[in-house]
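Annotated sample (chain length 320).
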Amino acid sequence: MRISTQMMYQQSMRGISDAQSTWLNYGEQMSTGKRVNRPSDDPIAAAQAVVLSQAQAQNSQYAVARDFANQKISLETTVLSQATTVITSAQEKVVYAANGTLSDDDRASLGTELQGLRDQLMNLANSTDGNGRFIFAGYQTQSAPFTGAAGSVTYGGGTESITQNVDSSRTMVVGHIGSDVFDRVTSNAIPEPDGSPSETNVFNMLDTAIAALNTPMEGLSDADQQALRDVVAKTSRGLKNSLNNVSTVQAELGTQLNELDNLDSLGADRKLIQTSQMSSLVDVDWNETISNYTMQQAALQASYKSFTDMQGMSLFQLNR
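Output written by the structure step:
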């Protein structure tokens, strides 16, 4: 093999170029704080980092979804708490109205109070969120869910409750439809004594009681008076059933809020683990990197010095 001055020059330049590239690479790692700045730095770690970054993004999306679900459920819980108070007050009025010693004026006064409670409950059932969307209308959020004249109120909202994916394997209801809340009774509802179907619509049962209380009993036959009392008694049973149903929905919402807290805690732990895993894949080891940078810098300076000294030499000088 022939050794020439040109070959020595090329080898020296190649060594300097490689040393400079390595030194600059360590400098880049120090400036970015990343050991892997491009796939070629560590193909395996880079591939794993892509998969892990997707998992991190998904975890962040679920965190946002849980925040949305928490807001929706909390709002519905607040409205149902107010509805429970109204139904309880209405039930107390109806129980008192069953007193057989009340005069027609007393009964009419109770009817007026009951009308006010009924209107409050209707307003709650048709309440909206901060964006003007009706809470209990399912996915048909642009129209009031409950409409109709006294005694014939119907639910006209959506037929599906609003759901939200709050974790990879968990979907929960974040918006109940109004018919499940105000037009339904539970399986253990108080039955009617004569076996007839129970009234499920809380507004219609209140309307029938109000109409009965506004009807004077003076001058009516005993049978007609008893019919009015039966209407009030049926409303009393119906309100108990409605209150039980609303309380059941409230309990479900409370359980979901607790579950969301647990999922948030799990998501936070998952985030910490993923951050640690990502750091181990792509972040620099500062002690090692600074040490390598310093050593490579010294090696590069030595290469520069050696090349400078060699520039003034030839094979003839080396052989002397």
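Annotation: Helices lie at 5-32, 43-97, 104-125, 178-182, 202-213, 222-282, 286-311, 315-318.
Annotation: The mean pLDDT is 86.
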